[in-house]
Design a protein that fits this description.
alpha/beta, Rossmann fold, transferase, tRNA (guanine-N(7)-)-methyltransferase, S-adenosyl-L-methionine, methyltransferase, tRNA_methyltr_TrmB_bact
């Protein structure tokens, strides 16, 4: 969902280059060692962070890890940045950037988890290549993930979930977890689940939340 532009968000993003990379040049290497206090910690990234409820909550709960939130919309990125600054979340960095370039922004074999939460389903067939579980995006995740790393995906969209199951399977990925109704699953995955803004809204309406975890076979 596209948010209305908020001038304060654009101003905040411009004022804090130490906390957020705004449309970075994909041909220029990013020095992540300088952006984190300890870049040797396990690293998780969320592609499409929205207003940031998921990534900020997770970063506060897990100071032993580093997190990167990637969001294309400046207004949404500004909202996440505001929370990061107000709550002093030092283990979180942000990028206002196109996820299509993600493999150019991060070193190979550097990421432990890629989170894909409530991504745009792009339901029309002609837009298939824009889906974040399309094979070209899987190529990029494979490049940046460590050999033992994995992808965690959640959505309320049945069509996108079914598409993603087929796409990941055709790519040769191995599924570690699949749920057709995460919020009614009596398991460890639900116990540690952190909700996004959209997830909370959809689940409150009784919509099932679909979830999968998968890894690449090396």
């Amino acid at each position: 969902m596209r948010l209305r532009n908020k001038p304060w968000a654009q101003k905040l993003v411009a004022e804090h280059p130490e906390a957020i990379l705004n449309e970075p040049d994909p041909d220029k290497k990013i020095n992540w060692e300088e952006r984190f206090d300890d870049f040797s910690k396990p690293l998780a990234i969320e592609i499409g962070s929205g207003k940031g409820q998921f990534i900020t909550t997770l970063a506060k709960e897990h100071p032993e890890m580093n997190f990167i939130g990637v969001e294309l919309q400046t207004t949404a990125a500004g909202m996440i940045l505001r929370t990061k600054l107000e709550d002093k979340i030092d283990n979180l960095q942000l990028m206002c950037a196109d996820a299509a370039n993600i493999a150019m922004y991060l070193p190979e074999n550097s990421v432990d988890i890629v989170y894909l939460n409530f991504s745009d389903p792009w339901p029309k067939t002609r837009h298939e290549k824009r889906r974040l579980t399309y094979k070209s995006f899987l190529d990029k995740y494979r490049q940046i993930l460590k050999p033992e790393g994995h992808v965690e995906f959640k959505t309320d969209n049945r069509g996108l979930f079914e598409y993603s199951l087929v796409s990941l399977n055709n790519y040769g990925m191995q599924f570690d977890y699949v749920s057709l109704d995460l919020h009614h699953a009596d398991d460890e995955i639900f116990e540690r689940n952190v909700e996004t803004e959209y997830e909370h809204k959809f689940a409150a309406k009784g919509n099932p939340i679909y979830c999968l975890h998968a890894h690449f076979v090396k």
